[in-house]
Structure formats: C-alpha cells, structure tokens
C-alpha cells in the first residue's frame, strides 16, 4: 500500500542509517547509447534514502501510462541501484507501462537493448516490445520474470527494417497491484554498415585505344563500421549484381587497423575488385552495378543500403567492305582477260571493325557499269548480325556480255 511505503520512507530518514554508495556497474552498450536517461538519474533526488512520486513531465526520455514515475533513490528498501544512484519502480498500484522517447536508428541496423530487472517483494513479470515511432510493433520479446534477490541483466536484439529511422522501447508490467517491477540501466545501441562505390581504374586490356569487351574495370568499395557502433563485424562481404559475392578481406587494400580481420567500429576498409567488360556492356554503352556490403555481428547478418554506380563506355560502331571477283574458283585481278559468257562471281566480305554489335547488315551494288543485269549480293556465310571482329560473306554473279568486251568495261 502507498501509505505503508510513506511510513517506511520516513523511518528510513529518521534512523541513523549509513549512506549507501552508488552502484558501479559498467555501461552495457560498448557503443553510443541511443536512448536518454535509461538509469532514471534525472531528475536527481539527492542523497536521501527515499522514494519519490515524480511528475511524468519531469522525467526526460520516458513516458508512463501512470500519472507519475516512482523513483527510488540511494538504496531505498535496501535495493542498491544496478547503475547510478536511482532506479524506477514500475506498476505501482496499477499495471504501468514505460515507453522511451523515440530515438534515431539507421535502416537495417542491428539494435541491441539491455536492461536490469528485479522484483520488489516477490517475483515480478514484465515484457519488452520494440516499436517504431509510429507505433507499429516490430517485435514482442514476451514476458520475463525476476525474483527479489538480485538484479538480472537482460538483453534483446533485432534488425531494423529497410526504412526504419526511429524506434521506441516499451516495457509493460504483467503483474498488477501494489507490487512493482524494478527497472534500471535501460540502454539501446546499434550496429550498422555503410558502403560507397567508385571506379578506381580502367585498363585497356587489348591496347586498342578505346573501350571494348575484355577491358578491366576495377571498382573501389569503402566499407565502414561507423564510430559509435556497438559491435565488430566478421565475415564481411561485398555482394554485387555484376561481380557476384566476394570476401572483403581477400580484396582489401587498407583499413584493418587492428589487424584482426574484423571490421571494428570506426574502421573503413578499402576494397578493390576487378570486373571484365562484356559485349553486352559495350552494346548498352555503360555498366551499371548495384552492390551492398554485409557482415556478421555475432547475432545477426546485417547489410548496408544499396550503392549504385554507372560507368559510361564509349561506343564506336564501324564496318568495312572488301570486294573481289572470281571465275571458276580463281580470283581475278585488274588486266585479267575475260570472254563473252564467262560467269564472274563477285564476293563481298563485311567485317565489324567497331566495338559494338552491328545488326541488319546488307550489301547492295550502288554503282555497276556492266552492260548486263547487276549482281545481287546474297548472304552465303556468317550472319546479318556481327559482333566486333566478326565477318560475313556475300556473293553475286554476273555473266560477261559481248558489249562488255566491245566497250572494255
């Protein structure tokens, strides 16, 4: 009952009790703590061994479903805070709910939550829910129960969604009535990974002085585990829709400052990976890559947002045409004598001299000075579509006329 607590508080003040030192537990997050006032140290109620009904508006970082927060200071009822000099008793005379003020998180981050829990005078039960700032529940960790003998440090992890930017933590009492859950040292911290991608170099592999299939593009990836993150990352990989999945350590050129092969908070690894330009890239006139980095926190595999890079390629289309004359399988040259009725085969070789695919190739005589019907070139080998360096053969026949002989055409 609340009036019994008041009597106990007065007695504690009146009797000559030695001041109880503050708890000295270390922070649980190794990275930046994202929420505020997780140990209920503000407002500070001083050195008195007592409990306080503190108006909700006076306690930053939290809201409550009750009209006030119950703050225990300096070993009230013999309970030493888990951390600092104050703690919170939840669900006093009602099934209370404590909710943190929304705090910022990164999309796809692993969120770790720590909290100390203890029963006041019997085993107490509460649960933790992790919600987005808009109130949509991401995860409910269910009920946890703790006896009165000692603090129990609990923890939970979850991976934020692709569009998450803020989050709240909600602790809800399960046991109603005058008996209360004791809470202290609520800490939330995150681990996330970032990736930037640039073109480091371009190598003209066939030394033809222009872009072409077979050239090598080397991409540079800067993979960061930002300072303030909670966890190192192992098994770091780059996943690229053109290159495939590669182990970052295999292609790392710098950044592992601790030489432990883990991407530690504050480190940025520089990773360079080659890619061979394909004919499809040349035909498109560019290479567009989408990549992300991922790593293992020990509890979850987390990934960065996508990094997209487009590398332009210069297309130089071109074809060449070579024409020869043949009679009976023997090539004719200027000055070779022909006779009326000779069948002359004109052969046309078309070669793709450019760096992209050429489609719809056709050969036509545009200036023929023979006196008979002009030859009509038709495809005899190859294709009407040529990739760089490929050739196709066309041929057309012509029969020598008397007039050709007379006019020496």
Counted up, domains total 3
Task: Give the beta-strand count.
Answer: 28
Write down the Rg: 40 Å
| Gross CATH architecture of the largest domain | Sandwich
Which term fits the overall shape?
A: rod-shaped
Q: What helical percentage do the residues reach?
A: under 10%
Largest sheet: 6 strands, antiparallel
CATH topology of the largest domain: Jelly Rolls
- Which parts are unreliable, with pLDDT below 50 for 5 consecutive residues or more? 1-22
- What percentage of the residues does DSSP assign to strands (E)? over 45%
Q: Supply the CATH class of the largest domain.
A: Mainly Beta
Major sheet: arrangement of strands: 2-4-6-14-9-12
The CATH superfamily of the largest domain is: Galactose-binding domain-like
Average residue pLDDT = 89
Task: Kindly summarize this structure in a few lines.
With 409 residues, the chain is mainly β.
Which characteristics define this entry?
mainly beta; Jelly Rolls; Immunoglobulin-like; 6-stranded antiparallel β-sheet; 45% strand; rod-shaped; disordered N terminus
Could you characterize what this model shows?
This protein is mainly β and about 400 residues long. The chain folds into 3 domains: about 1-190, Galactose-binding domain-like (Jelly Rolls, Sandwich); about 195-310, Immunoglobulin-like, CATH 2.60.40.10; about 320-405, no CATH class. It is built from 4 helices and 28 strands. Strands 2-4-6-14-9-12 form a 6-stranded antiparallel sheet. Strands 3, 7, 8, 10, 11 and 13 form a 6-stranded antiparallel sheet that branches. Strands 17, 18, 21, 22 and 23 form a 5-stranded antiparallel sheet that branches. The protein starts with a helix and ends with a helix.
């Amino acid at each position: 009952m609340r009036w019994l607590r008041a009597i106990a508080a007065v007695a504690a003040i009146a009797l000559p009790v030695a001041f109880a030192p503050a708890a000295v537990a270390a922070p649980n997050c190794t990275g930046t703590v994202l929420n505020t006032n997780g140990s209920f140290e503000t407002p500070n109620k001083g050195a008195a061994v007592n409990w306080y009904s503190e108006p909700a508006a006076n306690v930053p970082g939290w809201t409550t479903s009750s009209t006030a927060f119950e703050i225990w200071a300096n070993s009230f009822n013999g309970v030493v805070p888990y951390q600092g000099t104050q703690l919170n008793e939840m669900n006093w005379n009602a099934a209370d709910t404590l909710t943190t003020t929304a705090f910022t998180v990164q999309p796809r981050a692993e969120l770790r939550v720590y909290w100390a829990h203890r029963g006041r005078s019997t085993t107490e039960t509460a649960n933790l829910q992790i919600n987005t700032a808009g109130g949509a529940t991401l995860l409910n960790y269910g009920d946890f129960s703790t006896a009165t003998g000692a603090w129990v440090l609990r923890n939970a992890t979850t991976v934020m969604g692709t569009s998450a930017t803020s989050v709240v933590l909600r602790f809800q009492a399960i046991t109603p009535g005058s008996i209360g859950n004791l809470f202290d040292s609520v800490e939330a911290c995150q681990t996330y990974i970032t990736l930037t991608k640039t073109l480091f170099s371009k190598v003209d592999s066939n030394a033809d002085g222009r872009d072409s299939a077979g050239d090598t593009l080397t991409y540079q990836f800067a993979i960061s585990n930002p300072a303030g993150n909670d966890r190192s990352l192992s098994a770091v990989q780059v996943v690229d829709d053109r290159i495939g999945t590669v182990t970052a350590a295999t292609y790392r050129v710098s950044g592992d400052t601790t030489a432990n092969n883990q991407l530690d908070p504050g480190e940025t690894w520089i990773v360079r990976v080659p890619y061979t330009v394909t004919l499809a890239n040349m035909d498109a006139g560019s290479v567009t890559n989408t990549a992300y980095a991922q790593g293992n926190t020990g509890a979850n595999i987390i990934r960065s947002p996508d990094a997209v890079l487009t590398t332009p390629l210069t297309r130089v289309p071109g074809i060449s045409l070579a024409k020869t004359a043949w009679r009976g399988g023997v090539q004719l040259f200027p000055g070779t004598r022909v006779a009326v009725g000779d069948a002359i085969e004109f052969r046309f070789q078309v070669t793709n001299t450019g760096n992209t695919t050429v489609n719809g190739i056709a050969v036509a005589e545009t200036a023929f000075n023979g006196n008979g019907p002009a030859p009509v070139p038709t495809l005899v080998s190859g294709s009407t579509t040529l990739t760089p360096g490929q050739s196709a053969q066309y041929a057309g026949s012509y029969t020598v006329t008397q007039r050709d002989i007379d006019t020496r055409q």
